[in-house]
Task: inverse folding
């Protein structure tokens, strides 16, 4: 994940990178098991909705954080 961006500041990460961080995010935010499952589903849905024919599925970290802050 560290080398995925030349600057390290890109707002998008791969779907795999987002899913790899779910447990850390859930722990840091004190999410229940149900909320963790909902987070995984939300990440997968976001990546599917935002996917294109070119390149792997991506997740926008800014949008994901906004979703988490809104409780959605």
Result:
């Amino acid at each position: 994940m560290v080398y995925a961006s030349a600057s390290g500041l890109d707002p998008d990460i791969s779907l795999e990178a987002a899913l790899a961080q779910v447990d850390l995010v859930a722990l840091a935010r004190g999410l229940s098991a149900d909320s963790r499952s909902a987070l995984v589903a939300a990440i997968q849905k976001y990546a599917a909705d935002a996917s294109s024919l070119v390149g792997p599925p991506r997740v926008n970290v800014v949008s994901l954080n906004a979703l988490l802050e809104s409780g959605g």
Q: What stands out?
A: The beta strands are 12-14, 58-60. The mean pLDDT is 83.
